[in-house]
User: Fold this.
Amino acid sequence: MKLYYSPGACSLAAHIALAESGADYEAIKVDIRKKLLPDGSDYRSVTPKGYVPALATDDAGLITEAPAVLSYLADHYDVGPSEGADKYAMIGWLGFIGTELHKQFVPLFWNGSEEAKQAAREKLAGQFALTVELMEGADWLVGGKLSVADNYLFVVLRWAQGLKIDLPAELDAYQARNLERASVQQALADEGLG
Assistant:
């Protein structure tokens, strides 16, 4: 199995899940801005989308998009619920994180206007407050246990911290819990971030 990643990008969530799982995998760093692989070849030869994550598997071929990659890992490597109500709750969280949180960072990362950046910050503040409300005081997002949805939320919150966006105290505590995990520390170190 091969994980194509860019340091600190949303692919970090899959990197954490793989470290948590103990699965055998190869992590391949992608220069996401230039769309280049370490050997200088065009990353778009792997996936025409040109962004990460991409996960090359033996049984399902190439999987792209963070929610799909994370769902695959949950199903195959015991890093999240693979059936029942908790599985659908996890998928719901993956959708929420991807559309309501992750997407708001686009103008902040990709040279948005000052007006767009301010609107994104305001939207994120409201969505972070909603995240706390939806967590209902739980330590983890789904069924009182760690899942790949937690990995994804950790990454998005890490971006917020890097951009000096204030987080509710509950999410600061959530980040601290995540940083204590060996898999998080390993993935951060592997990506040169720890």
Q: What stands out?
A: The first strand starts at residue 2 and ends at 5.
